[in-house]
Amino acid sequence: MTIAEPTVETAGRDRILDEAASLFLKQGYEAASVRRIAEAVGMQAASIYHHFNSKEDLLEVILHRGLEVMTVAFDDASTATLGAPGRERLAAHIRAHLAALYENGPYTATHVTTFRTAPENVRTTIVPQRDAYEALWTTLLNDLLTSGVLTPDTAVGPARLMLLGGMNASVEWFDPQRGSLDDLAHLITRQTLYGLSNPLKN
Amino acid sequence: MTIAEPTVETAGRDRILDEAASLFLKQGYEAASVRRIAEAVGMQAASIYHHFNSKEDLLEVILHRGLEVMTVAFDDASTATLGAPGRERLAAHIRAHLAALYENGPYTATHVTTFRTAPENVRTTIVPQRDAYEALWTTLLNDLLTSGVLTPDTAVGPARLMLLGGMNASVEWFDPQRGSLDDLAHLITRQTLYGLSNPLKN
DNA sequence: GTCTATACCACGATAGAC
DNA sequence: GTCTATCGTGGTATAGAC
Fold it and tell me: Is the pTM of this model over 0.90?
């Protein structure tokens, strides 16, 4: 075999990122030590520093990747529902955000749970990409408002914060091993659009 | 003055709890050191250990107090709306939970943000009280379902998780200094009951 | 009840061999 | 690219004077 093996050159690096993100998600950034991360990967703590300059650097890469997963999912949902009715477009984007949280590694869930208390310089670096993701949602909701899908008196800003907050909060209780992601997406879409009130008693 | 001064004997202790809860809220439990907490109080780190056995002990007391604040607020809302219509009762309890988060010290907000990654033995100690608070909400929502305020096909379990999750997630963006708590409560109540959908286009 | 002094340990990170 | 060995720091916590 003289043909080069199709090895992914970042395999070792990605392995570290996977384990680190999982531990940051479960224990929090400060509580997860570099030694413990290295143990999970199966190497010595010092070896981590061949791939990353610092523990903060590790977190920064993970937070960026979490946002990248969300953003790609959002864009995919957008192209997949280009001419579709407003309610379907919203449903697809909700489903996409939840898929980012539960189906593409721990990066997005880790982002969502660790960003608020991350070291300030790390947060500062992440903010622009984060603003860009939120702007995507603002644009989507504004479109739905303009096209009459949402009530005219909808405050788009708070609505976006509530919707994203509610989805992200599901990491506290939703277990993708036990529940169906489609069911969760359907539930959130329905509750967001129509609420819990009994329409017969309005 | 031979009459005893009405001093609160736990003032020093409460002072420590206040500063510790604030720092746990802002930086997370692990990142906030005992030395830093002591500095905020204006004493030496060693003095903290006259009032608490350990840093974990400090966290445990704070988490318990956070739940106590929530529970008292819930019960007050219950007695205040005893004979009231279902929608008003729901509105009052939503407002009460948000008041616990933003108006009675940092305890409830700290509980909500640090419980998930708290050391396991601490979490275990807290769980029963936490379950009791969630049971209060389950009972309330079941009442509203039985009395026809909520759609008959409402899944009370997920509805409770979504509602509490959405309210708790507001700690990431709501600033009680800048926004009105009544407005927030009204917004969440309205969105929970009726959703964002334009009723004219249903 | 608060202080000074300090024990002891785990942390992030580096040096340098292989 | 991973290892062993180690450095320096800051962490929780304790001892004992005042």
Answer: yes
